[in-house]
Amino acid sequence: MESALERWQEAGLISGELAERLREEHAHSQRRGRRRFLQYAVAGMAGILLVIAAVTFFAWSWPELGPGARTGVIAGTGIAIVLLGMRLEAARRYVPVTCALQTSGLILLLTAYVYSMEAWENTTPGGVLVGLLALATPVAIMPVFVRRNPIMPAVGTALGYGFLAAFLFRAFDLDTDNIIWILDGALAAALVVLALLLRAGHAQSVSRRTLYAFTVSLYVGYPMAGLTVAGPFELGAETLLALDAWLLLVTALALWGIHRAPAMLRSARYSLHLAASVLIAIPLGFGTALDVSDLPPLGAAAVVAGAGACGLWYGLRTNARPLVLCSCVTIVCAAWYLAVDAGDRLGSVVALAFTAALFFWVATRLGSGKEA
């Protein structure tokens, strides 16, 4: 900042008075950032101490409690953490911390519903009651979350599939395959409804919440696609093909959101999802090439490096820095895999030298152009 202000002042772009005012504002912002960092650090230490205290209490009292009491303790702790997060959220000062607290509380509550089978078996009155509570939880919290911020509705949407699974398991004692099919139907219906809401072009605030929920549901599709193929279809390595197809779907939607979506929804930030897709392509690419297609190590490395090269080409064209970095990581993983598989110094040197040359070329590309 200081060097930039000196350069602008020497070039006559700003006056000395304005430069001094900018220095003061920057110093004030830095002091505020340091205070916020200290707040997070102290709050984090307090949270760690709270967890240690809870673990100590449970270690002392857990053996003395029955299954029902343990369920109540877990559920009560989850509800208390959710309420604490919502109370802190009202202050509008610790939004990331409050979202983490509320998410952790909901996960504890879901854990309590599942653990309750130790006290009440499935389809018994107690089990049915717990199942109904599991189903009622997302229904009750979603209207509250929607009115408060756009992040927690997305979290509630993702965890809602878990609460639905707990309801089906506790109230009806369905087997895993049937639960997976029902969750698939719920996921497909949610994606269709959310897509229609986005297509309708509602107000920006509503569309933001809907967009986050739609995005989270898309990422929920990864485990659901894998569970469906591995569970009801009883396939082995071919499960990776379903994950590959879902990866292509998410990537295509991100590209659509960048270039072809309605103006209200179009955003260059979707390149972050492209960066995530490139990273996800590392394990999926290796797994598909080696286990499904039976390609040699060179072919597997070429597949992963190809995904990184595509991301690198697009990232350089659109100046998407996270995508460029993730693509470079993907290419490095392919090069290291090939180097380790070669098992000799010459193969390692060739693979790494080629990667280094590629990155030097990328550096020259980043330094070229009118805005270099």
Topology, number of strands: 0
Portion in helices: over 70%
Rg result: 26 Å
User: End-to-end span in angstroms?
Assistant: 19 Å
Name the assembly state: single chain
- Outline: globular
Indicate the low-confidence ranges by residue numbers: none
- Tally of helical segments: 13
Order of helices and strands: HHHHHHHHHHHHH
Supply the helix-strand structural class: mainly alpha
Give a short account of the largest sheet: none
Average predicted confidence as pLDDT:
82
Percentage of residues in strands? under 5%
Describe the model:
The structure is a single chain. This protein has helices at residues 2-10, 16-61, 67-89, 95-115, 125-148, 151-172, 176-200, 204-230, 239-259, 271-292, 297-318, 321-342, 345-366. Helix 6 packs antiparallel against helix 7 (176-200). It is mainly alpha-helical. Helix content is 82%, strand content 0%.
Could you outline the blueprint of secondary structure elements for this entry?
Elements: H1 2-10, H2 16-61, H3 67-89, H4 95-115, H5 125-148, H6 151-172, H7 176-200, H8 204-230, H9 239-259, H10 271-292, H11 297-318, H12 321-342, H13 345-366
